[in-house]
Amino acid sequence: MANASAAAVAGTSWCGHCGMSLAAPSGSGSSVRCAFCHRLTRVERHRGVTLAAPSPPRAAVSAGLEIPAGYYPSVSGKKRALLVGVSYRGTAHELKGTVNDVKEMRRLLCGKFEFPGDCILELTENERDPTRVPTRANLLRAMRWLVEGSGSGDSLVFHFSGHGVQKLDLNDDEVDGYNEALCPADFEQSGKILDDEINEIIVRPLGRGVKLHAVVDTCHSGTILDLPYLCRLSRTGYWQWENHDRPSGARKRPNGGLAISISGCSDDQKSADASGFSSESSSSIGAMTDSFIKAVEAEPGTTYGRLLSAMRARVRDGQGSRRLPGRLGSFVRWMIPSSTLQEPQLCSSEMFDIYRKPFLL
């Protein structure tokens, strides 16, 4: 408590992006630029106390957050990927199958889309290297690695399997009034990663000719990248883009590139494991990750529309198999939508014909 009080009096806060300490100026409503990552953090004072991002773990502060030699894979070629599986081991939030999600995504990227294995960075709690554990600080650094130095023709993939939550939006940049957020392994100590931060780090820096695909298997993940367009797709195949440009007027588009997210469910839904309802799953895996991989492998050269429809059908049949099996059950689930069933979502930084544009990583 004494240390916290001293920090408040001295005007010290922490960068919301990398966790480095900041010297907060006097006055309220100011933004401070971090000397380490050069990003802005909003800092406010209430009754003499500086409010900003929560303090990072003590170990991260003492280490100074320097990037260790060999922390990032050396990128060769035009493809790179960041695969994250958070298990929350030893906590009440523990998940099974997230490490399997990462393994299966690596297999898909290397085997089907020719991603070089040494250009794929994995963050899981199975890693012995502490810099590869999916803490908030490590994940933010890894996301910067994913886009840093990318150029025209590059294909980037971000995959996250873990917990996702909603938080009340306080700056009027969400259509539904809620921010979406990812939960790193240490989210209870260091905080969650808001969609605003994700957009700033891996969407807005994308230059012309750079393509990013985010595959996010969490609850409340529909608009997790804060992209301006959400695809509304009916079960009869009718589709349209819904404009999600923010009421505040904040522009959250790439700098000439293309960003597309494929997520596990809408913002108000929860995601599930595939174990228990898929007879083909020999081990636990996220329902969304399972449906994505199976849909991509089943139809080479598929379009975004066909991919999304196939994913939804697989998830719908899988989650409903415990209730009414067989063709009758499939027909009933197709005819009668249920808000309790997760439906994978498609968002993009630009509009396109989802049944004509081929899906390619």
UniProtKB/TrEMBL annotation:
- Record GO cellular component, one term: cytoplasm
InterPro entries in the record: Caspase-like_dom_sf, Metacaspase, Pept_C14_caspase
Identify the stretch(es) annotated as Disordered.
265-284
Q: Which GO terms describe its biological process?
A: proteolysis
In this chain the Peptidase C14 caspase domain maps to: 78-339
Which Gene3D superfamilies does UniProt cross-reference here? 3.40.50.12660
Q: Which domain of life is it from?
A: Eukaryota
One GO MF annotation is:
cysteine-type endopeptidase activity
Where do Low complexity bias regions lie?
272-284
> Per the similarity annotation, which family is this?
Belongs to the peptidase C14B family.
Can you name this protein? Metacaspase-1-like
Question: Can you name the source organism?
Answer: Panicum miliaceum (Proso millet)
Upper classification of the organism? Eukaryota, Viridiplantae, Streptophyta, Embryophyta, Tracheophyta
